[in-house]
Specification:
Helices cover 31% and strands 23% of the residues. With 407 residues, the protein is α+β, with helices and mostly antiparallel strands. The strands form 7 sheets. It has a 6-stranded antiparallel β-barrel. Strands 2-5-4 form a 3-stranded antiparallel beta sheet. β13 and β14 form a beta hairpin. The structure holds flavin-adenine dinucleotide.
């Protein structure tokens, strides 16, 4: 949508560009609709350095795109077209209305104003080229599922990734690109939960832990260490910390078993925590161990902590040995789990991998292999952390592709 608007706006000195937007769904923006839990985290208002540092893959490729259309330009576009925005925690930008549908409606309004012709229920089957034998050189249009051939001077592929496929992103663009000689790097789910091995993890399902520190190791090697929020599920672990970990870790690591520890009391050192335990035990000398730790964790964790502590639950706290207490402190500071791979594309917020960026001109988004063919958005081998950065990639590359094609 953003690329189509930019293409329609781009002035090549020969009058208005005629732009067709082909969408296979019955409506536009099905994925946009579910973004930000239905609120659409449009972009991130941090400065450029932060935008780049939140791009996980191929940040350098985005240099021209981010400068051609930065976050402020995106915000201005929506504000100018009647959508008020607000900035929340972490500089995340949302519509004031909290409705992603208003973002889509704004784009639709501008598409109409710019006279972009939108064709719904229109699925592209393949791209058409002149010189249909390698080297394929010029794009000449597209062929639809029903065999109709639509001629075009330029084609922009904005088909998205391979996740949440019910929204329409079924990876068609990867096929289009491959058919025309492009390389598509391995695609993998990202910003996605993890499976875990231990049965006690599923016992904790539904429990969310705030202000914890998660560390992930490959053997002894520390791969990830962040503070924040996590969630236990019926299959393993999720929540912001784990989604971010899935994006930050290299695919060679997410494919193998990794050990993870959760520091349940990151604000306290082991010594401070031990003192606190001692204090609690002294105040309730004759209490049984199982009845003395309720104040330390959410209720759902207590049975699991008792089990993992190895301390007899009925034991009186004044009979607990120093060794037992210190090993309990260690358990609280490093609650253990084993990660066993990522959940699949159906739950992945984004797709890692895509059309190889070395084969795309970063200043225009045009293919280096096929003239007049452009790529933008998640179909490219670009991905970022949560916080509005993935949509910023889509807006920036969409703007640059549309503007370049339009000119
Ligand atoms: C649950 C969820 C929440 C998210 N929340 C956020 C968020 O708050 N902030 C953020 O920055 N990012 C978020 N993202 C990521 C963001 O939505 C995507 O990165 C972004 O939508 C990618 O834009 P795109 O235009 O490249 O692809 P898409 O938005 O996937 O659009 C591709 C379009 O192409 C159409 N299409 C595909 N193939 C064909 C074909 N052959 N013919 C015709 N049409 C076709 C599809 O139907 C679809 O409408 C979220 C993703 C998910 C799944």
């Amino acid at each position: 949508m953003f690329a189509a608007i930019a293409a329609a706006e781009a002035d090549d000195g020969a009058g208005e560009n005629e732009v067709l937007l082909l969408e296979k769904n019955e409506k536009l923006g099905k994925k946009l609709y579910i973004t930000g839990k239905g609120r659409c985290n449009i972009t991130n208002a941090s400065d450029m350095e932060v935008l780049f540092s939140n791009v996980v893959t191929n940040a350098k490729f985005l240099y021209s795109a981010f400068y051609a259309c930065d976050n402020q330009r995106v915000i201005d576009f929506f504000e100018k077209n009647g959508l008020n925005t607000k900035v929340e925690r972490g500089n995340r930008v949302f519509p004031v209305s909290d409705h992603s549908s208003d973002v889509i409606a704004t784009l639709q309004k501008v598409l109409k104003e710019k006279k972009v012709k939108v064709m719904l229920h229109t699925e592209v089957k393949s791209l058409l080229c002149e010189n249909a034998f390698p080297p394929m050189e010029y794009i000449t249009g597209v062929e639809l599922m029903d065999g109709t051939r639509l001629p075009a001077d330029k084609v922009i592929v904005a088909t998205g990734g391979f996740s949440y496929q019910t929204t329409g992103s079924t990876g068609d663009g990867y096929r289009f690109a491959r058919e025309l000689g492009h390389t598509v790097t391995d695609i993998r789910p990202s910003l996605v939960p993890f499976y875990t091995v231990e049965p006690y993890v599923t016992q904790l399902q539904g429990l969310s832990l705030k202000n914890v520190e998660v560390r992930i190791y490959d053997g002894k090697k520390l791969l990830y260490d962040e503070f924040g929020e996590m969630l236990f599920t019926h299959f393993g672990v999720s929540g912001p910390l784990l989604l971010s970990a899935s994006a930050a870790l290299k695919p060679k690591f997410t494919e193998k078993k990794l050990s993870m520890t959760v520091d349940l009391k990151p604000a306290l050192s082991e010594e401070q925590l031990d003192k606190r335990l001692l204090r609690e035990f002294e105040e309730a000398k004759n209490k049984q161990f199982k009845n003395s730790i309720g104040g330390l964790f959410p209720a759902k964790m207590v049975p699991v902590m008792l089990e993992l502590s190895g301390i007899e639950p009925e034991k009186k706290v004044n009979e607990i040995t120093r060794e037992e207490r210190l090993s309990f402190v260690k358990l609280i500071k490093a609650f253990p789990m084993t990660l066993n791979g990522l959940r699949d594309f159906n739950e992945a917020i984004i797709t890692k991998g895509g059309v190889k960026v070395k084969e795309v001109n970063p200043s225009t988004m045009e293919s280096k292999l096929v003239k007049n063919l452009y790529f933008c958005g998640e179909v490219l081998d670009l991905d970022a952390m949560t916080g509005g950065y993935n949509l910023q990639i889509a807006w920036s590359t969409g703007y640059l592709a549309g503007n370049s094609a339009g000119q």
